[in-house]
Amino acid sequence: MTDARIPLRAWIDLGLLALLWGGSFLAIRTALDEIGFLSSVAHRVLWAALVLWGIVAWKRLKVPTSARIWGAFLVMGCLNNVIPFTLMSWGQLSIESGLTAILNAATAIWAVLVAALVFPDERLTTARAIGVTLGFAGVALAIGASALTSLDLRSLAQLAVIAGTVSYALAGSWARAKLSDQPPLVAAAGMLTGSTFVALPLAWVVEGPLPMRLQPDTWIAIAYYALAATALAYILYYRILAAAGAGNLLLVTLMIPPIAIVLGATFRAETLQPSAYLGFALLALGLLILDGRLGHALSKKRQL
Asked: What is the pTM of this model?
């Protein structure tokens, strides 16, 4: 059960992490106005990897030399970066930033299912099953019935984002199984290095050499989502994990979509259907049940 008591510093970090990740959807969409979606991914992982390796060197952390670990970094980079970043960037060409952020919240739902299949200590309890069911119902509502019965470009874009969340969930289980013995900063830097080795040549083959002569707005967007929303965000992520635990970290999933929705509406005049908001509300309820916080609050109320 999640402990609802979170240190003030962790609350501040949670808010900052939500702002960073919530703003990344707008930044990515802004960059896509000038560069291809594969190039946007290559820019993201390349610069983030360089920054994190600089921090690793500054902290004098030990760099692994085992081929097994670097192979695990490569797989992690594909599952946690290349595949989801590519699918979601492509999806954002056809759907709103806010809707992408809402669908992205399904990552936590898939993570529970994948963990239940892989790890004996992550069994699917009744409460978790209810949370997962509500979460999937929320995702279906946010996507809309038409997207589930037709395969136009918008529908495919939404399905691509959902596929990206499945990849994120697989990455979480892979990290626990193969990289739990690595320092968080080293694991993040190694993962992003593996991502770069895949994303950079892929973008080069499909879209040409990585574009460097870009408009200032594009560079600002790239700097934001690569340095702030990736490199800095990973540092915050692991700091919150250590201070507040994995359960409380789930709260950031609920905080991201409203930020992305507001930014998309403010800077790109995006609007969402009412079903998207209702779907997010249902998804948020499912996440709170998975988190255990809602059941804990109701239990305390009955005891009063």
From this structure: 0.91
